[in-house]
Amino acid sequence: MYKLYIANKNYSSWSLRPWVLMSELRIAFEEHLLAFGHASSWQSFRKISPSGKVPCLVDGQLSVWDSLAIAEYLAERHAGIWPANASARAWARCAAAEMHAGFTELRTRCSMTCGVRIRLKEIPRALEREIARMSELWNDGLRRFGGPFLAGESFTAADAFFAPVAFRAQTYNLALDAVAAGYVARILDLRSMRRWYMQALEEKLRDEPHEADMLQAGTVLQDLRAT
Prior knowledge:
By secondary structure, this protein is of the alpha+beta class. 52% of the residues lie in helices and 13% in strands. It has helices at 13-24, 41-46, 67-75, 86-101, 104-109, 125-145, 157-172, 178-188, 191-202, 208-217; strands spanning 2-6, 29-33, 56-59, 62-65, 116-120, 218-223.
């Protein structure tokens, strides 16, 4: 059975991608959580992942690190990671790659923290452009392939790569058009996303760098996490 190494569910957007993908597609795996917040985190992660980062998928003696590499590795072994239709598959890969390599302003200013509600101190033009581009991308996929997911009827890696953005939209109350907001609501309502969210709320460990980023970005309106 696969072993999937992840970090704190409240913070780790990269970990969420393969976790929700495998959960939604019912690909069995053992979950191993290596928490942030300790001086030895990098050394602990290095024992599993050559990059010293998670997520990392372990299959026997093989380690596959980086969320996009994990998706492609799984796609060689399981149906449904990418759409069966060639046009939808090409679009989905482009969308996932754009998220993987881009949206740096969104990631920097709106770090993932599932259990907190935050009012941003400012929304610079660069962030507005990225939110607009994200909405445009989602609208395009939903229109082209008929929904309810980005590349058609089924949840694929394209949706998994944007799943952390759904939590960000909830945390920071991002301004989205009706279609994009509806997509966020559908993703948040997935059984696997609800499970991740509830487990994130239960986490008591706080990672100071993540907490500092959160406080720098905005004002905390509500903290729903366990104390």
